[in-house]
Amino acid sequence: MNNDRYSVAPGSLVQQLDVLWRRQCDEWAMLRTGRSNLHAARTRMFDLGGWHVIAQCNPSRVASAAAKVDARTLAARPCFLCDENRPIEQRFVLYRGDWKILCNPAPIFDPHFTIVWAVHEPQLVRSSLHSMLDLAADLESRYTVFYNGPSSGASAPDHLHLQASPVGCTPVETELAAAVCAERGNNGQSWIEWLRRVPVHVGLSRPGRRPTIVITGDDRQAILDAVGQVLAALEKVHPVRPEPMLNLFATFADDHWLVWMFPRQAHRPSCYGHESDRYLVSPGAVDLAGLLIMPRPEDFERLDAATIHAIYREVSLSSEEFDLLRDHLRR
Ligand SMILES: [Zn+2]
Questions:
Q1: Whose CA is closest to 192, among 205, 176, 207?
Q2: What is the pTM of this model?
Q3: Position 252 in a domain
Q4: pLDDT tens-digit profile of 198-210?
Q5: Distance 20 CA to ligand 1 centre (A)
Q6: How many angstroms does the Cα of residue 116 sit away from the middle of ligand 1?
Q7: Measured in angstroms, how far is the CA atom of residue 187 from the centroid of ligand 1?
Q8: CATH code (residue 284)
Q9: CA–CA separation, 82 and 34 (whole Å)
């Protein structure tokens, strides 16, 4: 371990991350620039018939949106998450011995962390799930932890990593909180249809919303089992190797985990491209959660509701396959 890059601060994990972010913003020019770009980023709000999308114009994200993720390109480039290739200025907080928490130098949030597995091993949801739940709980309701599947928005699918954003920063989190509160208060119909309520709640979004699966409860093992059942059902409905295409989130509040996922059928929409009549948009977890990142100002300007609908429709699991998934989970 390079001790120069190891950040030690007293206090809880949340306090250590506060110190890491502040210190790195002071001493690391790349993060300072990325953060300035984030603060200068323009946003536009779209109402897509009951659910909301915020478009963020963020030029710092161009490398991520344009990343080539085919096996040959990945094998030929130095992995930017491996110890030996990371910038010398980039410090980390060690988490449970095997994960390194880094500041993301092209932040979408302030702060925005990348949590990197110690070894160069591929992105796999089954390798990450336990740690996502633990990390969400250890972060004391301050952060949401998320995962991009290897062909669902990850720009480094060859190196296992998670990300963390301040809780409540995406439109879907507000909408989910309302749905969970409505359920706890027996407060009428929400956009989530709950299929099961014991030992944990498992729900699916109703028709008209982009396909979303929600699991919530206070029993860690039951949450893991429920996610495993959803993954097994997705493997039947839309089989893709090495794992079902998805973006996964976990957060923790009031002693309950809230886990949700967006099942996918495409890495990028058909409008994706570098040409002037295309959109340089590569949707990952954050985008599916309603914060659509547009690195090119010209794309941001001409974006409209119809294009956003098409992007979500094309990258999300089809409504027919989502209905099949509902049937599987009802059994
Ligand atoms: Zn690596």
A1: 205
A2: 0.95
A3: yes
A4: 999 999 999 989 9
A5: 22
A6: 9
A7: 47
A8: 3.30.428.70
A9: 21
Residue 148 CA to ligand 1 center (angstroms) comes to 16
- What is the b/e burial string over 25-51, where b = at least 16 CB atoms within 10 angstroms of the residue's CB? beebeebeebbebbeebeeeebebeeb
Distance 174 CA to ligand 1 centre (A): 34
**Ligand 1 centre from 124 Cα, in Å?**
14
Host domain of residue 312: 3-172+229-330
Q: Report how far ligand 1's centroid is from the alpha carbon of 143 (Å).
A: 24
Give per-residue pLDDT as tens, 310-325.
999 999 999 999 999 9
Q: Residue 80 in contact with residue 156, Cβ under 8 Å?
A: yes
pLDDT band at 85 (very low <50, low <70, confident <90, very high): very high
Amino acid making up residue 247: N
Evaluate whether residue 301 is within a structural domain.
yes
**48-59 pLDDT, tens digit each:** 988 899 999 998
Domain total of the chain: 1
Which amino acid is present at 236? K
Q: Give mean pLDDT, residues 146-150.
A: 95
Inside any domain, residue 248: yes
Rounded distance from Cα 120 to ligand 1 centre (Å): 4
Report CA(73)–ligand 1 centroid distance (Å).
13
pLDDT of the residue at 1: 47
Distance 126 CA to ligand 1 centre (A): 18
The answer to whether position 326 is within a domain reads yes
Query: In angstroms, what is the span from residue 130 Cα to ligand 1's centroid?
Result: 21
Running DSSP on this structure, what letter comes out for residue 4?
G
Distance 156 CA to ligand 1 centre (A): 8
